[in-house]
TrEMBL record:
Gene Ontology molecular-function annotations: oxidoreductase activity
Gene3D superfamilies in alphabetical order: NAD(P)-binding Rossmann-like Domain (3.40.50.720)
Pfam families the record matches: adh_short
Phylogenetic lineage: Eukaryota, Metazoa, Ecdysozoa, Arthropoda, Hexapoda
Protein name as it appears in the record: Ketoreductase domain-containing protein
GO biological process: one example: lipid metabolic process
Source species: Drosophila virilis (Fruit fly)
Residues in the signal sequence: 1-17
Length: 349
């Protein structure tokens, strides 16, 4: 049983834990063991848990080894980040810049990109490479090939592409104009796909590269009044899954990160069903995860070359599993939520 506890403990320990501390903690666990009357139960539990704990421990240690190895290789890597002018994109810029990467900042608002660049240059980082600012509008599909040419001209390559740019919408299906549906799909899906496709040949030629898509838990399951946004993220998830399989034999990696609510200006910048600015901070968004924390987790995801991760609170994870294993319960909950939102909207008006 102690052997099982040893490996279970190894799973949750950080890689920095020294051997002496590890053994001390194991002895503490053993001291807390019940009397010999429980030996039979110990043996039974050990027989059940050992086949689970041992592989998990090995996988965990292997992932940590790969992550540390890749982190040592990060300095000097060229990282292109879309939507880098604020929010999660800005936090990602800070995380990869501090890791010694050559960051290329892309977004529509050049002035904000210059602000982010100035903030990065003020950091005490070694090695430090001056960030590059390139304007990018994902809705302008015809301009994307030229953008990629300019991005490649900076360092002759892009090692990591982080597709973070996007917009959201707050409206039910009936009140959302088709033009809004088109705009959300254009930016969140087609713009991202066009950028990825334009950059892909250079990565394939070098037999190297990592493409990371910042999706959403709403790309895993849909909720009321997010139909357009959720549809665009579902499409992105499918595209990422297909691309991952196609480039697996080319020494390339594809990650899809699905966060829950993030404490950014996403809801403030969201569209209404008519296409105007929503301009409100949702309560769920205000209580969301810090973009700095999420950026660190995305860095770890890329270092570990994880194909698909969900980063959210327990509620979103429960919804995800309900959608797949108890769909009738999930549909009932969503119907109740839609009714609640409808009543709240009528009351507000």
């Amino acid at each position: 049983m102690a052997f099982v506890l040893y490996f279970l403990f190894a799973i949750v320990q950080s890689s920095s834990c020294c051997k002496k501390e590890f053994i001390m903690k194991l002895h503490e666990v053993e001291k807390c063991a019940p009397s010999s009357d429980w030996n039979v139960l110990y043996w039974v539990l050990g027989s059940i848990l050992m086949p689970i704990a041992l592989p998990l421990a090995i996988i965990n240690l292997w992932q940590r080894f790969r992550a540390q190895k890749y982190r040592n290789q990060l300095p000097g890597k060229v990282v292109l980040i879309t939507g880098a002018s604020s929010g999660l994109g800005e936090s990602l810029a800070h995380v990869f810049y501090r890791a010694g990467c050559k960051v290329i900042l892309a977004a529509r608002r050049v002035q904000e990109l210059e602000r982010v660049k100035s903030d990065l240059l003020a950091l005490d980082v070694d090695p430090a490479y001056p960030p590059t600012v390139l304007p990018l509008d994902l809705a302008e599909l015809n301009s994307i090939p030229d953008f990629v040419s300019r991005a490649l001209a900076v360092y002759n390559q892009v090692d990591i592409l982080i597709n973070n740019g996007g917009i959201s919408v707050r409206a039910d299906v009936a009140s959302t104009s088709v033009d809004v549906d088109l705009k959300v799909m254009l930016v969140n899906y087609f713009g991202t796909v066009a950028l990825t496709k334009a950059l892909l040949p250079s990565m394939v030629k070098r037999q190297s590269g990592h493409i990371c898509f910042i999706s959403s838990v709403q790309g895993k399951f849909a909720i009321p009044q997010r139909a357009a946004y959720s549809a665009s993220k579902h499409a992105l998830q499918a595209f990422a899954d297909s691309l991952r399989a196609e480039v697996a034999n080319k020494k390339m990696y594809v990650s899809c990160v699905s966060p829950g609510y993030i404490r950014t200006q996403l809801s403030m910048n969201a569209l209404t069903g008519a296409g105007s600015s929503y301009g409100k901070m949702d309560e769920t968004t205000a209580k969301g995860m810090s973009p700095d924390k999420l950026a660190e987790l995305i860095l770890q995801c890329i270092m570990r070359k994880e194909p698909d991760i969900i980063v959210s609170d327990l509620q979103a994870k429960i919804a995800y599993y309900l959608r797949h294993f108890l769909p009738s319960v999930y549909f009932w909950i969503m119907a109740k939520r839609a009714l609640k939102l409808e009543k709240a909207e009528k009351k507000a008006n």
